[in-house]
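Before relying on records like the one below, remember that each one covers exactly one chain. Contacts with other chains, cofactors or solvent are not represented anywhere in the record.
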Amino acid sequence: MAKGGSVSRFFDDLQFNPSLEQLLEIQKERKVTVLTGYNNSGKSAYLKKMAENERVLYLGPNRFYSFHFMSLFNHDENELSNFRQNMFNQRQSQYSNFESSFYDTNRALTRLTNERRQKLFEVFQELFGVEISVRSEFENNEFSNRYVNIDGDSLSVTSSGTRLFLGVLAALMDERFQTVALDEPELGLSPVLQTKLAPLIVARERDDELFPHNPRFLITTHSHSFLDKGTPSNNFIVSRNGNNIQARQCLDKQELIDIHFRMLGNDLGNLYLPDAIIFVEGETDKIYIQRVLCMLLPNHKIVVESSGGDIAARLNSWSSALGDLQTGPYRRRTFVVADAVMQSGLQRLVERLGIPVQNVVKWDGNGIEYVYPPALLGSIFGATVHSTSELIIVGDRVSAHGVTKTKMELAQALSAHITSSTEFPREVQIKLLGPLRNAIVPDH
């Protein structure tokens, strides 16, 4: 919508599919709903829309603060309506985005009853192995200022992650709210802290202690730790097209694994794992393909595995080592390269393991030599080789123009001449390099 020569999208212009009411109806029996998606996909917009309901507690991403002395609790019947009015006013501003949280840690802790606060401290102490309590500045004066003590230090000098962790849990324990909209619980938390918080708010492992009022949580996240891995359908993928925001329910475990992998950057190399693994029939296949990949994909770690003529056995071992190839990120990153006469049973195996059709490379000829660059073959055989059809292969020997090499001698000599500017046969480019690039280049 244009105003004053500039383009501005206002919150009220957004269209949600499903609508908030429909989303809540879909998830009415679920304790947790997780919204994932790229930045600016509209995840937070769902939560902010939800915050219009006075029975919903909205915890925005702006949760960073520090305090030493705890304030006194003053009951204010208008605090919720004042917060929602402030949020409404700010989101009407053309260049503002409401990111504030209704609760800070101080407010969240002081609002809890003594019994509920003590239960929070017990859980915190069990998780972190530290003593936590409320103390007076002067122990002999109960009217002196109070602060939260953690192992002899004030909460104010502990890490921001500790304060954020404690503040989020305290806010979620507010029994006035049956629904909590929590925007990116991972903010400011180390991976270790995330793995401590996620079981509490996603798996709901200690509901009886922390959340006896049985609230439901709707969260947005960019962290795989906060995906609901137990129930894939509790996860939604949010996307945006202009003012239209769509939330699509995760279909199954396989799609959940894909979401998980996307959150890790879609790049196994960054995790010090191979980007892909290619199973080939023999050592000469390995020597040639490794050299090709070294020249054309130098920034990717790709393992080429020689199978000694038995690709099926090696592929079976690989699948067993992973636990279940069909449900892991390597399903789309495992390749099989075979001759025209494929090993018996290999095709059935790759189908059973769920390896994509485009990842099964079947050369037109029987031998890796038939996909060598003809220009390089000419330099080895001392005469121009216009096509690999000129090669004569008998057993372990390859001949052309009166010159004979063993397959290993030819593979080593040819690979030594490969550079980044080498022109490879079209069959290599289409059948192997194209699908491989599609599999390992991260989506953005």
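The longest strand covers residues 235-241.
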